[in-house]
Amino acid sequence: MYEAPGVVSVLITGRRLHRLGAQPGQFFRWRFLTDGLRWSSNPYSLSAPPRPDLLRITVKANGEHSEALARLEPGTRVWAEGPYGALTAARRSQEKVLMIAGGAGITPMRALFETLPGGPGDLTLLYRASKTEDLALWAELRAIASARGARLLYAVNGPDGVRPEITPRRLRELLPDIDDHDVFLCGPDGLARQSYEALREAGVPTRRIHHESFEM
Ligand SMILES: Cc1cc2nc3c(=O)[nH]c(=O)nc-3n(C[C@H](O)[C@H](O)[C@H](O)COP(=O)(O)OP(=O)(O)OC[C@H]3O[C@@H](n4cnc5c(N)ncnc54)[C@H](O)[C@@H]3O)c2cc1C
């Protein structure tokens, strides 16, 4: 299913999938039993809360394996190894949560945005991408934000192509009580490093910054 340029979702159907015990925020290693893919198992996060009959991943073309997933035939069998990962609701210690996602890093955040406990005004999701058309799953995120009274913000490059920086000042403007938040962070290493430093300078303790890296 097309989501954005170079980004597709793959729906994995099955029975009693809840027995896998997967949590929103987690990933599996996926081995698709079809030519060209059966000898590799690559990690992709769940991009929606797991259901007993359905799991979803959303994949940005990044190389051979991730590109090939756009050409999967319906009915292709798959082995899922996992679940893995600690970027789950269990890490949350505060009422308020900020999620920072960049590019494909939106996938675990999309699953958590729908399910993380919290009342109106407790959750904020900041989604960074190069261009607005690259904001995959945007319509779903907007629907969740409106249903939950959560804040959804995006940051794309300027007309000059310059990326908006994540700075302590901008974070405090966005959330004056940023230091009372847990922060869930997933995206390219550059964004993750910049966000981490800005969050620390804005007073968020290390123990409340929960990061998942998609890099090897
Ligand atoms: C925990 C985790 C969760 C991920 N979740 C998602 C997701 O939800 N959606 C998504 O689009 N991508 C996700 N990725 C990244 C995805 O696994 C890689 O983009 C993909 O495996 C690259 O393989 P390739 O053959 O397409 O590219 P290659 O040509 O093999 O590699 C392209 C780049 O991807 C990196 N890479 C290659 N293999 C892996 C691997 N096994 N693990 C991590 N990086 C790799 C390489 O370092 C290289 O920079 C996740 C990665 C990790 C570690």
Task: Explain this structure.
With 216 residues, the protein is α/β, with parallel strands linked by helices. The chain folds into two domains: 2-84, Elongation Factor Tu (Ef-tu), domain 3; 89-213, 3-Layer(aba) Sandwich (Rossmann fold), CATH 3.40.50. The chain has helices spanning 64-68, 106-115, 138-148, 168-174, 189-201; strands spanning 2-4, 7-13, 27-32, 42-45, 54-60, 78-84, 96-102, 123-128, 151-155, 181-186, 209-212. The mean pLDDT is 97. Bound molecules: flavin-adenine dinucleotide (FAD). Flavin-adenine dinucleotide (FAD) is lined by residues 27, 42-45, 57-60, 62-66, 85, 104, 107, 212, 214, 216.
In short:
The protein has helices at residues 64-68, 106-115, 138-148, 168-174, 189-201; strands at residues 2-4, 7-13, 27-32, 42-45, 54-60, 78-84, 96-102, 123-128, 151-155, 181-186, 209-212. The chain has two domains: 2-84, Elongation Factor Tu (Ef-tu), domain 3; 89-213, Rossmann fold, CATH 3.40.50. 21% of the residues lie in helices and 29% in strands.
**Which kinds of small molecule does this entry bind, naming each only once?**
flavin-adenine dinucleotide
Number of helices: 5
Evaluate the radius of gyration: 17 Å
CATH topology of the largest domain: Rossmann fold
CATH level-1 class of the largest domain:
Alpha Beta
- Which strand order do you get reading across the main beta sheet? 9-8-7-10-11
Overall geometric form: globular
Mean pLDDT: 97
Beta strand count? 11
Kindly name the structural category.
alpha/beta
Along the chain, the helix and strand elements come as: EEEEEHEEHEHEHEHE
Q: Main sheet?
A: 5 strands, parallel
Q: Calculate the terminal CA-CA distance, rounded to whole Å.
A: 26 Å
Estimate the strand proportion.
25-35%
CATH architecture of the largest domain: 3-Layer(aba) Sandwich
Uncertain spans: none
CATH superfamily of the largest domain: Nucleotide-binding domain of ferredoxin-NADP reductase (FNR) module
Total tally of structural domains: 2
Helix percent reads: 10-25%
